[in-house]
Amino acid sequence: MGDRRGRLMLASFLFLALLFLLLSVAGLWDALAAPWKSLEGAWTLRLPWLLAALALGTGNLIGMAALWTLLARRWGGPIDFTEGITAWVGANLGRYIPGKIWQLAGLAAYVRGRGGSSAVALVSAVVFQLVILISGIAAALLTLRERLGTAFGGSPVVPILIAGGLALLLHPALIRRAAPILAGLLREDRTTVADLMRRDRSGHRVYTWLLGAAVLPVWWAYGLGLWCIAAGIFESPPGDPWTLSGVFAASYVAGYVSLVTPGGLVVREGAMALLLVSVTPISGAAAAVLAIVARLWTVLAELAAFGLAALARGIRSRTSSRAASRGQPPQG
Q1: Which residue in 30, 197, 241, 302 has the fewest CB atoms around it within 10 Å?
Q2: pLDDT at residue 150 above 70?
Q3: Rounded CA separation 209/198 (Å)
Q4: Could you tell me if 58 and 305 are in contact, meaning their C-beta atoms sit under 8 angstroms apart?
Q5: Residue 257 — φ and ψ, nearest 5°?
């Protein structure tokens, strides 16, 4: 009964995520029509560049899922590596459901269904998201520097302060205290969760910094992917991959901190268009087109990553079942 209920909840979650995702894509497609038409003959379609961008985006998502899985496993989560990647890219689709909790709730439900702690899963997911945001701000500052402040009419001091404030939340002592509190709220054994978080006390800070260093190149790969998108739809792509990585990272952070739109829709595209106009020789219409196509690109990458992870999980499951059946003694 428990397995059936879990499968039903999973199916419902995926149905809602895909429904809201398709509704979002339909809205983006309509929004793309006007600026695309205004460009007249200034655009083109080069499929090899677009496929290269899709490969980069898909690979980035699978890589990030692998990093979260390693983090959760280090803190005691009973997570199979392939299943962990599938769970992360699947829960990632929950960002399109209105509300900011569905991605975290999906990961917590997955770990709890495997006999682990929802509290540890939530802490690992929050820590990983904080690392993503901090590294995104760092990537934007490294690539755009003073132009980041100019684009938003402010100063780079503001994003530096935001990144510093987020970094304080990664202090090992705070993480170790947060997990047992969450365990109590979720009606789990506080002592067990505290022991899990305490067993590698000295390594928490080092591992978090290593995680940040591993995530930072993801933004540069996204910048290269955005450049490939531009090369695939324009005769001459604006900017270079280095600059575009900062544009993508800054717009992602702006969309994530937006509390009113699922998946940062509209906010991320608006920030990206504004930055593109500010730091590259591109028109407003072309910037709007590139920002919207970039969102469609990331949606396709999310679906491709989930499909590949689910396929790999299915192949591994069938292989394990066959191996187990061959190892059983003959019946009768």
Answers
A1: 30
A2: no
A3: 18
A4: yes
A5: -75, -5
User: Other C-beta atoms within 10 Å of 312: how many?
Assistant: 15
DSSP string, 19-46: HHHHHHHHHHHHHHHHHHHHTTTSB---
- Per-residue tokens: 204: 């928490």
> What is the Cα 119 distance to its own chain's centre?
20
The predicted model scores a pTM of 0.84
Q: Closest Cα partner for 64 from 185, 274, 216?
A: 216
Query: What tokens appear for 214 in the block?
Result: 């591993």
What secondary structure letter does DSSP report for 285? H
Both tokens assigned to 33: 């029509």
Instruction: Give tens-digit pLDDT for 184-237.
Output: 777 777 777 777 666 655 556 666 777 878 888 999 999 999 999 999 988 888
Boundaries of every domain in the chain: 61-308
C-alpha–C-alpha distance, residues 29 and 22, integer Å? 10
| Angle between helix 47-74 and helix 203-233 axes, rounded to 10 deg | 170
Q: Pull the structure tokens for residue 266.
A: 């509209």
Cα(36)–Cα(54) distance, rounded to whole angstroms? 21
